[in-house]
Design goal:
The complex is a heterodimer of chains A (about 230) and B (about 110).
Chain A (H helix, E strand, L loop, with lengths): L9 H10 L2 H12 L4 H24 L4 H12 L2 H41 L12 H20 L14 H29 L3 H30 L4
Helix pairs in contact in A: 2-3, 3-4, 5-6, 5-7, 5-8, 7-8
Chain B lengths: L2 H5 L2 H8 L5 E2 H11 L11 H10 L3 E8 L2 E8 L1 H25 L10
Antiparallel strand pairs in B: 1-3, 2-3
The chains are: A mainly alpha (about 230), B alpha+beta (about 110).
């Protein structure tokens, strides 16, 4: 059969449609433009893809060919640039909550690390880094209050107020500071483990401190990036 | 009605169409357009971040459910969402009454001097 005489194969047409699918192009552009916690971003993008697929299906149900229906669904949806700021706002708030939670979990561990360094180095007179129980308790309380305020400013308690615009940046730098402190703790624990007799415990805590530093630094970096992006 | 005018009332519209039961994103869009007779201009994409925001605020509860052949994220009103919807309705009634009384003044007897 010659090419001119060949009838259009529905399967081939479908494959061609899929090669340049307006919905997949739209979703890919959206996924590139958005930044935030991977799971929440994936859920948001999947839901948007479903919405576009539903809209296209409604048009194909009216007899419109798939490619044209998908294009129409995308046009009705609005340009990627219009949608990104409001989607990014939710992702930035989600990232802020993640980083605040990471700081909340890391700071007690940080204090425990410094207690261990002090105890391990006590016999060779390490300077006391404000290790009194009162100082530790007030530090933990201050952090708890700060983090409770951060959660309140991003969650269900803020129905009638808007989330402070600078909050993501404040949380990002709190996370960065905590990450740096964990890095310093790691180095101190490695040094102390070389000097103390109870080195296995100190070395283990040092490894945990290094892991905490890596997690905290990654979360803080993501939060700093999100806080710089335009939101609606 | 223009899209920017609709945007200010989007939360109330979304809560209202979910009052009768859980719906997924596209069904919510279809319900809004059906109830308005297609007169509300809106970029349909804007409802997804709005639904996410309402869920974060505790006004909606979202969950993945099997609808037809696919899994879709469905939303339903929470108790807080129902209270917020009632507040939105009251505020809207007061607003339209106030604006209506200015645009369409009812002839009232002039006070005698």
């Amino acid at each position: 059969m010659t090419a001119a005489g060949r009838e259009a194969d529905p399967i081939e047409e479908r494959i061609e449609d899929r090669i340049e699918d307006p919905i997949e192009d739209y979703v890919a552009a959206l996924a590139v433009a958005l930044h935030g916690p991977a799971r929440i971003k994936a859920r948001m993008v999947a839901e948007i893809r479903d919405g576009l697929a539903d809209a296209a299906a409604a048009h194909t149900g009216d007899g419109v060919p798939y490619h044209r229906a998908a294009g129409q669904a995308v046009r009705e949806f609005g340009a990627v640039g219009e949608l990104v700021p409001s989607c990014q706002r939710e992702l930035t708030i989600a990232q802020t909550r993640h980083t605040a939670r990471a700081v909340a979990l890391t700071i007690p561990f940080l204090i425990a690390c410094w207690c261990l360094i002090w105890i391990a180095g006590h016999d060779w007179r390490l300077p006391d880094p404000a290790q009194s129980p009162a100082a530790q308790l007030s530090g933990v309380t201050a952090v708890a209050v700060l983090l409770a305020a951060m959660f309140a400013a991003t969650g269900a308690l803020v129905r009638r107020l808007s989330t402070p615009r600078r909050l993501p940046l404040a949380v990002a730098w709190s996370g960065t500071t905590t990450g740096v402190a964990m890095g310093v703790s790691t180095l101190a624990l490695v040094t102390v483990s070389a000097l103390t007799t109870n080195w296995p415990l100190t070395a283990c805590v040092g490894v945990l401190a290094a892991v905490s530093h890596a997690i905290m630094a990654a979360s803080a970096r993501a939060c700093r990036r999100c806080s710089r992006l335009p939101i609606m | 009605m223009r899209a920017d005018a609709v945007r200010g009332h989007l939360d109330g519209l979304l809560l209202a169409v979910l009052e009768s039961g859980p719906l997924h994103g596209y069904a919510i869009i279809a319900a809004v357009q059906q109830r308005s007779g297609g007169t509300l201009e809106m970029r349909t994409g804007t409802i997804y971040p709005a639904l996410n925001r309402l869920e974060r605020l505790g006004l909606l509860h979202g969950s993945w459910q099997s609808v037809g052949e696919r899994r879709r994220r469905c939303y339903q009103l929470t108790d807080a969402g129902r209270r917020t919807l009632a507040t939105e309705r009251t505020a809207w009634q007061e607003f339209t009454t106030a604006i209506g009384s200015v645009l369409n003044p009812v002839a009232s007897p002039r006070p005698t001097t």
